[in-house]
Amino acid sequence: MTRPALDDLIALALAAGREIMAVRAAGFAAQTKGDGSVVTLADQRAEAVIEAGLARLAPEIPMLGEEAASAGRIPECGARFFCVDPLDGTRGFVKGGDEFTVNIALVEDAAPVMGVVYAPATGELYAGEPGRALAGRCDIGAAQLLAPLQAIHAQSTPPAQWRIIASDFSGRNQATQAFIAKLNGAPAHASSSIKFCRLAEGAADLYPRFGDVCEWDTAAGHAILSAAGGGVMRLDGSPLRYGDAAGDFLIHGFIAFASAAAASAARQALI
User: Fold this and answer.
1) Which of 52, 98, 110, 126 is the most buried if burial means most Cβ atoms within 10 Å?
2) What is the mean pLDDT of each run of 10 residues along the chain (271 residues)?
3) Would the pTM count as exceeding 0.70?
4) CATH number of 163-270
5) What DSSP letter does each residue of the chain carry, written as one string?
């Protein structure tokens, strides 16, 4: 089974990042979609770049994209499909923040096996495929790597205190606060898919999410974390699987973990 090269997916994420930053520099207006979420020209242009690029790289593999799905363009995903969020963290982007990402993942047999997460405003780049997870920095203006990507690994041994990262918004809800308290964890907050990457690079141990998210919000980060030695499970402890068209590609909460020990601690906290 031939996969696209990870370098090619990285190049697409960087190209999408350039589109996003060009829209930001020119100024833009935000619109509200039917589901209440926000969309901008940056989302649309970035997804168009990614979709065209993936069609060239692997025309036989369908792409599930956030904006296409919002417009009712949902492919027959099958055993292999790309899962794309062209601009994860649009609300923060609209407010002028820097914590938004481009997410590109390849899903095979319901599991994300390749992923790229790029933060155009900070230059952070993460990528992963079976056997290797990588991180690096890019020049923000040119969206080009400043140095070769370096290998990263999730923290495999339990720390003195669990480091628990959550989103700026949902991370402050009652369920998340109760989870952190039960583990006597040290909390931290971040936005978009960078949270998965913090686990992948060894800077955090757990990322709980209580509430619904879409598969394109998690697939790329999930792939990178898995490549770094961690994983993601549903709130009932079962593996998180992808391609659930019948469920509108919604995930009803999850726990991302850096190690088996972290996963075990999370399961106990959920009882």
Assistant:
1) 126
2) 92 97 91 80 95 97 95 93 96 90 98 98 98 97 96 97 88 88 95 95 97 96 98 97 95 97 97 89
3) yes
4) 3.40.190.80
5) -----HHHHHHHHHHHHHHHHHHHHH----EE-TTS-EE-HHHHHHHHHHHHHHHHH-TTS-EEEHHHHHTT-----TTEEEEEEEEETHHHHHTT-S--EEEEEEEETTEEEEEEEEETTTTEEEEEETTEEEEEEEETTTTEESS--EE-----S--SS-EEEEETTGGGSHHHHHHHHHTT-EEEEE-TTHHHHHHHTTS-SEEEEEEEEEHHHHHHHHHHHHHTT-EEEETTSPBP----GGGTTEEEEEEEESSHHHHHHHHHHH-
